TrEMBL record:
Entry superkingdom: Bacteria
Species the sequence originates in: Streptomyces gardneri
Domain DUF4440: 16-122
InterPro entries reported for this sequence: DUF4440 (IPR027843), NTF2-like_dom_sf (IPR032710)
Regions crossing the membrane: none
Protein name, as recorded: DUF4440 domain-containing protein
Pfam families for this protein: DUF4440
Amino acid sequence: MTTTDLANLVLTDDVEQQNQAFIDAFNSGDGAIFDTLYRDDAISNLSGSPLTGAERRQGIIDLLNTGPKLDSKVVQNYVAGDVSLVIVEFRLDVADEQGGRQIITGTCTDVMRRTGDNRWIMAIDRPLADELPTK
């Protein structure tokens, strides 16, 4: 159930709120909405390789068009001024090549930056799977 206003995404100082906003935006299936949580120059390897800018945005849109579902929990959070390191454990339910479903678990290391209006935004998104699915 979505608990975040997806039309007005705001990441507050509360790391649990940040995590829930990411889950809700990701699970909406709308890559354009999810991408608003990233700086323009942010780096993400959600697609399997580090992407930034328009390539990152398209990679996110393409991934979310496949209908994955995300769940995650914050395991560590460190804040130094306008930089936050957030480490989460994730569970991702994705389509496999045969049209079935597969579960990928892992750890994601995120670097967030505080903006001038006291909001947080993703600078680096680096999920690592515990084990990659076999083909």
